[in-house]
Design the sequence.
């Protein structure tokens, strides 16, 4: 931690503490509001609907600890992230949850949900068949109907109706948070961004763990100071990280200690989480559905056209990215299938890539060797 | 000293026909252009009756069985796999997909000649890889018109009009798209006929599998793979529906005559997920113990369509025709087709392994099984998803279960000696001895 | 009745001469390339150890990876069955036998009579097994025999981050460069192996009394790592490498 830039004490520390002490936050929130908490596994979960019901939706993540409890439940060839998440559940680390939900995307994480349903006591669970053919004009009408079914299910569980006004309010709350996150990300466009990739990761991760209102208040406070913040470290090489689920702070720290800064990302716990807003229309559920259908997609939903490639290339251009670290959880098929096309497109745009497979824990020493070699190569390119 | 045979056996009369039909299928696809026809490629679960509306000269290449054919040819498979890896694709991806891509990269058709490029892609998407498989195929072939249909609307027990609408909406769009790219006018009569053929073939296949409840089983799984395969090639084709009718009659005859699949049936098992295609001889090894695999949810429910019968047993689903329903137009045909296909047993576990466990327990009971062999198939996430929970569910219900890791399409991940070892240990646990040996 | 059990493993051949459930003599020989020759050698050694003439032996049974090629007998029992029989003979209260050898790890649940209830083998993603330990010992520049006692002098748990055996060896080198005390690294290595093995054990569950057998059970550091991972006491018989052969000898008497 020696190379740590001075954190903005008020805000980045707040984000970090929310992440490290998420269980405390959750318990305190429950006591204060008497509300229920639902854990979700994938960013396609329609949080606005749950929030409108007075529920706090929180993202279930792993712990980056080696474990030996999931083998009876999930075959080891499935990704380490889904097994790590299940291990947390089996070890009681999420015993403050009242329910769990999943909006279907990849196969691996579904197993975490279904094993959790059977083996870990929870009061409520819901599987939402989020459509995969998001490029079809039928996806939004289908999801709208499914959201209606989900709404009824929540209402039955809670024993009360979810008012339209509450949905309007939830959309506003979520849109506000996303807007603020963008504004922080916009600051990373600058030649010397006033925040590191590590700080950005703390910010985005914590938004998936707390009430968006609390998070937005912290963001607003941050935004009054951040533009004036001067960097205490050289930016170095401007990097992007993209890929599957990634919340490995230790890795980000390591890379940024080697003379580089992550200026933008496209992964499942990063910008893909908040990149798109709900555009309000007459039909509330339809407008929520539209947001999830049209958002930057997970590879499982990015077909027949690979729209994500275009999106990534635009980020590369806007953020003046010099190199990209393409990561994925070990065994992640959807990302693996896209990697050759993505890499080709990035290389074609003059951006070199370093591919790394992540596991529950990563061999930092070995990864550092690769990252340093990559950065050296990029720096030499710069000279010519 | 081998023990005296308990039952009489006889080869299947329809065996040669089964082989011919399959080879003809692959030949038809390759020769489509010569005949002025069209050819398309897509998954075995693509709603294959739909492109039939483009004409009587439309042939298909379904991806999974084609890839399995490559996998059964170990030297070709290795070449294909290595070509795919050289092109930058990861080794833990779907094994079928890697074999298939390799075939294109090497420009080698597994049935001779160069790889025949399809005119369009008509695909279904249920596992994570399906539609993306063909994204890469299109890349490799320099661009092919590609339509994939999302079928993942939830388990059949929750079927509702809006789910059918979603499927049917995509199919309507797909038909319009097909007309545009082929320049052909769609013929609803051909669609209706194809859909009816498919109802018939998939229901009849289930009926054939249900006959294996008989002791001794008239069929065993290794043979069944060569019979069910037609349901994965062109189940919408009249020839396949007719073939299954013929096969059904023969299997009934075998039962009447007391003909068994293996002469010394002593231990009835079921398997699960695709077998390791390059090592089907493991089934012959099992026979040395008098152990027979009478089927699996995979063999029964990948193409077979089932329902609860009035007597509470699991049997073939009654077709719309059998219910006296007359199919009059395109939309009605597509709706019936969507509902029929959504009830496919092998689609339910995508939403919950516990649904699959229920079906497996049913098979174990109604087919009177002594044990279960689970292939933890590294080559297919779609069918292995949740398999560990299936194992727990079966054990909880008191069924002996053996599991083994392997790969349906990558022989480098299958250790034959070790699997035999595990099987030996399993038989020991069940108290079943090898014929004449310990 | 005097019987002989032959365990033809990947690295060694073990032979036990038994009578009425008691071990009369044992022999162990490296398997080498010619297992017929090494089996004969081990048998001769065991008979000599038992002071029993070959003619007195009434039945043979073979187990281990090489059992099918055993020239001396067609009678076989799998390693799973042999482990259950052998261990319950040595310890009546044993209900779980965890067998960790050079190449494979197995776990067996059995009943009071030594009958197998369920079993599991380690699969591909397991870095468990003796060969891995050997590689790590090399990286630490200690002998395999020293690895266990070295790890016992550590009182700090250091997590090995590499999940894959391929990276693990170079991670050990990194840990050494970072001046991590060698005893802590040794312990981390053994904890990593134990974690893989226990992952497999949990698949079929475990019930006391738990026994640990096979070559790797001779490593006291590994035994401690297993106790920590299982959160339960683990019993290692006096000569864990002979349990399979004993089980085979008992099977021969049936």
Sequence:
């Amino acid at each position: 931690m020696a190379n740590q830039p001075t954190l903005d004490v008020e805000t980045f520390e707040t984000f970090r503490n929310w992440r490290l002490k998420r269980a405390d936050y959750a318990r305190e929130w429950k006591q204060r509001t008497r509300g229920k908490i639902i854990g979700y596994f994938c960013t396609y979960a329609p949080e606005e609907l749950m929030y409108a019901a007075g529920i706090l939706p929180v993202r279930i993540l792993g712990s980056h600890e080696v474990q030996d409890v999931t083998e009876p439940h999930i075959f080891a060839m499935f990704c380490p992230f889904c097994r790590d998440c299940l291990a947390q559940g089996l070890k009681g680390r999420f015993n403050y949850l009242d329910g769990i939900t999943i909006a279907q995307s990849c196969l691996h994480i579904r197993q975490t949900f279904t094993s959790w349903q059977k083996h870990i006591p929870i009061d409520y669970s819901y599987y939402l068949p989020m459509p995969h053919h998001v490029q079809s004009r039928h996806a939004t009408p289908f999801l709208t109907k499914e959201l209606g079914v989900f709404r009824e299910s929540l209402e039955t569980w809670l024993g009360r109706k979810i008012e339209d006004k509450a949905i309007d309010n939830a959309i506003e709350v979520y849109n506000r948070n996303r807007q603020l996150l963008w504004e922080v990300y916009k600051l990373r466009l600058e030649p010397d961004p006033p925040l590191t990739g590590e700080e950005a990761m703390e910010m985005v991760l914590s938004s998936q763990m707390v009430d968006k209102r609390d998070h937005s208040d912290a963001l607003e406070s941050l935004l009054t100071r951040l533009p004036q913040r001067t960097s205490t470290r050289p930016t170095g090489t401007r990097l992007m990280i993209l890929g599957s689920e990634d919340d490995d702070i230790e890795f980000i720290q390591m890379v940024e200690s080697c003379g580089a800064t992550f200026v933008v990302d496209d992964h499942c716990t990063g910008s893909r989480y908040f990149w798109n807003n709900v555009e309000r229309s007459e039909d509330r559920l339809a407008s929520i559905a539209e947001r999830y259908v049209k958002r930057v997609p997970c590879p499982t939903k990015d077909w027949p056209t690979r729209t994500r490639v275009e999106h990534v290339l635009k980020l590369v251009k806007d953020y003046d990215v010099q190199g990209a670290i393409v990561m994925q959880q070990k065994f992640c098929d959807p990302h693996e299938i896209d990697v050759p096309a993505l890499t080709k497109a990035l290389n074609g745009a003059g951006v070199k890539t370093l591919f790394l497979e992540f596991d529950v824990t990563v061999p930092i020493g070995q990864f550092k060797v690769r990252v340093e070699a990559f950065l050296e190569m990029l720096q030499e390119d710069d000279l010519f | 000293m081998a023990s005296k045979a308990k039952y009489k056996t006889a080869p299947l009369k329809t065996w040669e026909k089964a082989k011919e039909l399959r080879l003809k299928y692959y030949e038809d696809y390759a020769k489509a252009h010569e005949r002025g026809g069209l050819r398309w490629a897509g998954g075995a679960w693509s709603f294959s009756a739909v492109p039939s509306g483009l004409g009587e000269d439309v042939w298909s290449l379904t991806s999974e069985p084609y890839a399995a054919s490559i996998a059964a040819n170990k030297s070709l498979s290795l070449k294909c796999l290595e070509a795919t890896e050289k092109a930058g694709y990861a080794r833990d991806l779907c094994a079928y997909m890697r074999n298939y891509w390799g075939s294109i990269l090497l420009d080698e058709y597994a049935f001779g000649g160069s790889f025949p490029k399809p005119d369009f892609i008509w695909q279904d998407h249920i596992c994570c890889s399906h539609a993306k498989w063909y994204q890469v195929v299109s890349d490799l072939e320099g661009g092919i018109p590609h339509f994939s249909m999302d079928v993942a609307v939830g388990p059949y027990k929750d079927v509702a009009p809006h789910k059918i609408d979603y499927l049917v909406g995509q199919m309507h769009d797909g038909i319009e798209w097909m007309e545009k790219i082929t320049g052909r006018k769609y013929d609803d009569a051909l669609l209706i006929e194809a859909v009816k053929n498919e109802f018939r073939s998939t229901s009849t296949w289930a009926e054939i599998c249900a006959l294996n409840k008989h002791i001794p089983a008239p069929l065993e799984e290794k043979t069944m793979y060569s019979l069910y395969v037609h349901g994965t090639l062109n189940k919408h084709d009249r020839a396949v529906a007719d073939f299954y009718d013929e096969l059904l009659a023969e299997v009934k005859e075998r039962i009447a005559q007391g003909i068994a699949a293996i002469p010394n049936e002593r231990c009835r098992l079921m398997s699960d997920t695709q077998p390791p295609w390059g090592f089907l001889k493991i089934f012959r090894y099992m026979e040395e113990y008098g152990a027979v695999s009478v089927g699996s949810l995979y063999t029964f429910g990948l193409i077979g369509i089932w329902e609860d019968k009035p007597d509470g047993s699991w049997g073939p689903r009654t077709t719309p025709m059998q219910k006296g329903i007359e199919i009059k137009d395109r939309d009605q045909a597509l709706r019936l087709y969507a509902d029929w296909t959504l009830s496919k047993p092998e689609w339910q576990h995508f939403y919950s392994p516990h649904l699959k466990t229920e079906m497996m327990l049913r098979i174990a009971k109604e087919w009177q099984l002594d044990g279960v062999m689970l292939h933890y198939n590294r080559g297919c996430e779609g069918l292995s998803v949740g398999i560990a929970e299936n194992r727990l569910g079966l054990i909880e219900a008191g069924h002996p279960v053996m599991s083994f890791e392997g790969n349906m399409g990558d022989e480098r991940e299958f250790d034959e000696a070790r699997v035999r070892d595990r099987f030996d240990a399993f038989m020991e646990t069940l108290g079943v001895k090898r014929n004449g040996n310990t | 009745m005097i019987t002989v059990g032959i365990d033809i493993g990947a690295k060694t051949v073990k032979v036990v001469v038994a009578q009425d459930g008691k071990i009369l003599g044992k022999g162990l020989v490296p398997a080498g390339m010619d297992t017929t020759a090494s089996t004969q050698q081990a048998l001769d050694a065991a008979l000599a150890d038992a002071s029993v003439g070959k003619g007195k032996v009434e039945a043979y049974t073979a187990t281990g990876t090489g059992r099918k090629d055993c020239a001396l007998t067609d009678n076989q029992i799998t390693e799973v069955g042999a482990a259950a029989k052998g261990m319950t003979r040595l310890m009546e209260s044993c209900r779980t036998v965890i067998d960790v050898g050079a190449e494979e790890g197995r776990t067996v649940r059995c009943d009071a009579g030594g009958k197998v209830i369920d079993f599991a083998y380690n699969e591909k993603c397991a870095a468990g097994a003796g060969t891995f330990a050997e590689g790590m010992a090399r990286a630490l520049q200690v002998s395999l025999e020293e690895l266990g006692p070295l790890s016992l002098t550590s009182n700090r748990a250091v997590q090995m981050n590499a999940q894959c055996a391929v990276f693990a060896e170079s991670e050990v080198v990194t840990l050494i460069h970072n001046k991590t005390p060698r005893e802590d690294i040794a312990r981390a290595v053994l904890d990593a192996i134990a974690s893989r093995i226990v992952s497999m054990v949990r698949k079929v569950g475990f019930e006391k009394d738990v026994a640990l057998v096979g070559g790797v059970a001779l490593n006291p550091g590994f035994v401690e790592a297993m106790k920590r991972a299982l959160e339960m006491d683990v019993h290692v018989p006096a000569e864990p490498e002979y349990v399979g052969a004993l089980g085979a000898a008992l099977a021969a008497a049936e």
User: Anything to note?
Assistant: The longest helix of chain B spans residues 188-211. Chain B touches chain C through 17 residues (CB under 8 Å).
